[in-house]
Amino acid sequence: MYYRIVTHDDFDGVVSAALVGYFLEIEKIAFAGPGDITNSRISTGASDIVCDLPYPLECGMWLDHHEANLEDVALRGIEQETIPGLRKPAPSCARVILEYFETEYEIDEELVEIVEASDRIDSFAYESIEDWRAERPENEIDRAIKLKAGKPAERREFLRWLVLSLMDESLETVAAQGDVTQRAELFRAEEEQMLKIIRQHLEYLGDERDIILLDFSGHTRRVSVVKNLAQLLTPQALAVLQINSLFNRQVKTNDLVFSMSLTIAGTHHPARRDLGEIMRQLNIGSGHAGAASGLLRSRSKQEMLKAKERTLKAILDHWKKQGQEGKSGPAE
Ligand SMILES: [Mn+2]
Asked: I need a labelling partner for 283 at 20 to 30 A (CA). Which of 99, 237, 312, 314 fits?
């Protein structure tokens, strides 16, 4: 009935595919990013199980945990009840999948551990910076997945191997494999490079220095960093806001992408902020409390520069307002 798993090409996507493949005995896996689905760059059909991605035009089963994707399906007028699978807000898609299968299958302890790891990585739920950077098998695997160097086909092959390995071996065993440790080591070097770029661009939005601002829109080429790394340099900051120009193939446009996430300190701060709410208030995007993004379109460079300043000011205003509201009562 189901022939292929189409999954997100990140840690949660890999774990999701390993779980579904394990329960339903499917070994054919395809990897995609959310944009591949929304722009129909990958075609799916009734024999596909789609995990941790937006709902495509057609598929046989859909498993997901992204609230924005659920809202999107509602906006498209599709009745969710008619789609096989399970969708609900959760720290990871792997968590949703476990819940879906545990009514029918015996779940062993190793699977529970893998799902807990996916929760931590996908929701960035850490107690402290030390907890985040701790040497855990899942972090080693996550680094190996995030490696940018190398050919796309090589990466897909590695991800496929990873999915198949996780179907019958523990995180610890898989993390110790040479394929993983070599890629993880290379990623550590890439991370060092990213930290260098972050250090060069690091600014703050507002005098309170709550928000780290990384503005890469001055670059004529794509800059890609893991913005979470910024908090290694300034652990007391509560959020990171990154601005990138939108590229159309290799050409820089006047459109800006704002992506913002709470740092670990921000997540534990008594004034609970909702970044998704800020993007919705500005009417430029969406997201959840801990991470959100928006797109600001402009017709000229001048218009873009003005819009950027206006948006930065508005983000700071909303941020401060949320901080005030947080003081008058619990916002959770
Ligand atoms: Mn996910």
From this structure: 237
Question: With respect to CATH, is domain 4-132 assigned 3.90.1640.10?
Answer: yes
pLDDT digits (tens, 9 = 90+) for 97-140: 999 999 999 999 999 999 999 999 999 889 999 999 999 999 99
Q: How far from the centroid of its chain's Cα atoms is residue 2's Cα?
A: 27
Q: Can you give the pLDDT at residue 137?
A: 97
> If you measure from the C-alpha of residue 98 to the centroid of ligand 1, how many angstroms do you get, rounded to a whole number?
13
Ligand 1 centre to CA of 65 (Å) is: 7
Query: Strand 291-296 relative to strand 285-287: parallel, antiparallel, unpaired?
Result: antiparallel
Q: What is the DSSP letter of 226?
A: -
C-alpha of residue 218 to centroid of ligand 1, in Å:
31
Strand (E) or helix (H) holding 201: helix 178-201
pLDDT above 60 for 29:
yes
Query: Closest Cα partner for 166 from 148, 182, 144?
Result: 144
Provide the 8-state DSSP code for 231. H
